[in-house]
Automatic annotation (TrEMBL):
<dbReference type="Pfam" id="PF13499">
    <property type="entry name" value="EF-hand_7"/>
</dbReference>
<keyword id="KW-0723">Serine/threonine-protein kinase</keyword>
<dbReference type="GO" id="GO:0005509">
    <property type="term" value="F:calcium ion binding"/>
</dbReference>
<feature type="domain" description="Protein kinase">
    <location>
        <begin position="74"/>
        <end position="362"/>
    </location>
</feature>
<keyword id="KW-0808">Transferase</keyword>
<dbReference type="Pfam" id="PF00069">
    <property type="entry name" value="Pkinase"/>
</dbReference>
<dbReference type="InterPro" id="IPR002048">
    <property type="entry name" value="EF_hand_dom"/>
</dbReference>
<feature type="binding site">
    <location>
        <position position="103"/>
    </location>
    <ligand>
        <name>ATP</name>
    </ligand>
</feature>
<dbReference type="InterPro" id="IPR011009">
    <property type="entry name" value="Kinase-like_dom_sf"/>
</dbReference>
<keyword id="KW-0067">ATP-binding</keyword>
<keyword id="KW-0677">Repeat</keyword>
<dbReference type="InterPro" id="IPR000719">
    <property type="entry name" value="Prot_kinase_dom"/>
</dbReference>
<feature type="compositionally biased region" description="Gly residues">
    <location>
        <begin position="593"/>
        <end position="605"/>
    </location>
</feature>
<dbReference type="GO" id="GO:0004674">
    <property type="term" value="F:protein serine/threonine kinase activity"/>
</dbReference>
<feature type="domain" description="EF-hand">
    <location>
        <begin position="455"/>
        <end position="490"/>
    </location>
</feature>
<keyword id="KW-0547">Nucleotide-binding</keyword>
<dbReference type="InterPro" id="IPR017441">
    <property type="entry name" value="Protein_kinase_ATP_BS"/>
</dbReference>
């Protein structure tokens, strides 16, 4: 066995077009990155604080509580990329041969403690990845490791290159652009449903899983993401200048800022340029760049525009955007209306990402078949299970382990009470013809593999791990029901709160009317002795997600709120991956990517 290479130190980040740099909050631990002028700002009273602010007020820590022994589980492979904050390598699972990406973040210390801003950023990024779970629109977090030198985030590997690399080939067809924009908006809508604002939606942060033209698209890099509930207002400038919303420049913004950035991306996909290209100052800058390039090369045109942030920001705030030059006359009125609605300068007038998924321009993608892509209308909760199976598993994968275990216990109570299970028991029995009460992992995998879904082997494994809470290699009926049930309907039953209280009392072993750290540890680890699930950070991570009042316990009210399924978690936010009737699936080998894919990476460096 080859020894793992020694840990590299992060290298300085190079320029990434079409950006003039990344705006980062003041005090960011990535201060060595290129920073434009006029950075600064604060968080409004009562608004979400940046993770750095929270860390500065919290206790100092010596470690994150992640798993140990990265080298025992993975073989480090070739370098994929590096930046001022991290390096990204290929990592090969020693037991399965599956390929991942590992993002290595060299630890920064103040004495014997982790530097607070560094610790906040790493923990925050891991928490956001965990909140997004196993969505197929995100390059998911497989595991987090640490040793004395660094933290290693093992992520899904995407080998089809960035969206930006494909945009450079020229404008997309309208239909192709619509399919990609829908995946971008699904990712944004899922983040917003979890109270996460991305603050850096751009083509460089979306990767194709493989090099197929119809490859799935995955969001990566939560480095600037922030937990932000609807109505919260942020004031620190953050993002990539070409994609920031006007209100970010004015230092008063919230979730709609991500919709603007997605709108700039949609404009690029449809035209191959930015919407302010005909601004007089920018046209003058482009002409000067072309003349300079012609003087050096003897070729007309082709110069790279060198504009100041002041010019760019003025264009973002006040320039008249172009919707008349080619290729706009060839695009449909629906496409134009769609992009214009996203690029309204008043954030209050912008549709949400979830609303945009129902826009006629995207809805017509589903016209040939209700199961072709799983976007479309809002009636998916009543659709056949086979059409929504993958969507249900993704949604369940965003719940977090504590909620998943609690829902399994609620499902067990429903089974004891003989409650109607929305046809899920019949579906389970078809996979368990012998009536053993358990379905082997491989039987369920075959259902996904051969059931008309466009999924890689890696995605199949990841989705099915949501079922198997006790990691015994089989799926029982309670696990099946808890993962696939429409819990929003169950919440409307009069027995709902009684069921939840019984589960709460079961977890509250000492009868204190609150769940302590020790009780949480028993709940999270008793179902499985898996080292991955019983790490030191398991309980703190669960509390960060559930403990709303920060007292270090879970009250019944917090427990009940955790189990609530909101309208923001609709199935239409997730791709169904159903193959269109009459369509054909291109086989994807184990590991998630065909051989020869270029531009592989996952996560932001």
């Amino acid at each position: 066995m080859l020894p793992a290479p020694s840990r590299p130190r992060p290298a300085a980040a190079g320029p990434r077009r079409p950006s003039t740099g990344t705006l980062r909050p003041p005090g960011s631990s990535t201060a060595r990155a290129v920073r434009p002028r006029a950075l600064g700002g604060s968080v409004a009273p009562g608004a979400s604080a940046a993770p750095q602010d929270a860390a500065a007020k919290g206790p100092l820590i010596k470690e994150f509580g992640f798993r140990s022994g990265f080298g025992d589980h993975y073989q480090l492979g070739p370098l994929l990329g590096s930046g001022s904050f991290a390096t990204v390598h290929v990592a090969v699972d020693r037991s399965t041969g599956e390929r991942f990406a590992v993002k290595t973040l060299t630890k920064r210390f103040l004495g014997e403690y982790l530097e607070p801003l560094f610790a906040a950023r790493v923990r925050h990024e891991v928490d956001v990845y965990r909140a997004m779970g196993q969505s197929l629109n995100v390059a998911h977090l497989e595991a987090a490791f640490e040793d004395d030198v660094a933290a290693d985030l093992v992520l899904e590997l995407c080998e089809g290159g960035t969206m930006w690399q494909r945009i450079r080939r020229g404008a997309y067809s309208e239909a192709a652009a619509a399919r990609i924009v829908r995946e971008v908006l699904r990712a944004v809508a899922q983040c917003h449903a979890k109270g996460v604002i991305l603050r850096d939606v751009k083509p460089d942060n979306f990767l194709f899983l493989n090099d197929r033209e119809d490859s799935p698209l995955k969001m990566v890099d939560f480095g600037l993401a922030q937990f932000c509930s609807p109505g919260d207002v942020l004031h620190d400038r953050a993002g990539t200048p070409f994609f920031v919303a006007p209100e970010v420049l004015k230092q008063s913004y919230s979730l709609p800022a991500d919709v603007w950035s997605a709108g700039i991306t949609a404009y690029q996909l449809l035209t191959g340029r930015f919407p302010w290209h005909n601004d007089p100052d920018i046209m003058e800058a482009q002409q000067a760049a072309d003349a300079d390039d012609a003087g050096r090369t003897g070729r007309a045109g082709g110069g790279m525009t060198r504009m100041t942030n002041k010019t760019l920001f003025r264009a973002i705030i006040s320039s008249e955007f172009d919707y008349s030059w080619d290729p706009w006359p060839a695009h449909s009125p629906e496409a134009k209306d769609f992009v214009q609605s996203m690029l309204q300068r008043d954030p209050e007038q912008r549709p949400t990402a979830a609303q945009l998924l129902r826009h006629p321009w995207l809805a017509r993608l589903d016209a040939p078949s209700a199961a072709d892509g799983g976007g479309g209308g809002g009636g998916l909760e009543g659709a056949p299970l086979s059409d929504t199976l993958v969507q249900r598993l993704q949604r369940y994968g965003t719940y977090g382990r504590l909620k998943q275990i609690a829902l399994r216990e609620v499902a067990s109570l429903m089974l004891q009470d003989g409650t109607t299970l929305q046809g899920l028991a019949d579906a389970f029995s078809r996979l368990d013809p012998g009536g053993s009460g358990r379905v082997p992992f491989e039987v369920a995998a075959a259902e996904l593999r051969d059931g008309g879904y466009d999924l890689s082997e890696s995605e199949i494994r990841t989705l099915l791990l949501q079922f198997d809470l006790d990691r015994d290699g089989t799926i029982d009926l309670a696990e099946w029901v808890s993962a696939l049930m429409d819990w929003a309907k169950v919440e409307k039953r009069q027995e709902w709160e009684s069921w939840v209280h019984k589960v709460f009392d079961q977890f509250d072993a000492d009868g204190s009317s609150r769940i302590s750290n020790e009780e949480l540890a028993r709940v999270l680890c008793a179902a499985s002795g898996d080292e991955e699930l019983c790490i030191p950070d398991a309980v703190p991570a669960a509390l960060r997600r559930v403990d709303a009042d920060g007292d270090g316990y879970v009250s019944f009210e917090e427990f009940l709120a955790m189990l609530h399924t909101s309208e923001a978690e609709a199935l239409e936010l997730f791709p169904s991956r159903r193959i269109a009737r009459g369509g054909r699936r291109t086989a994807t080998p184990r590991g998630g990517s065909p051989a020869g894919g270029g531009g592989a990476r996952a996560g932001g460096a």
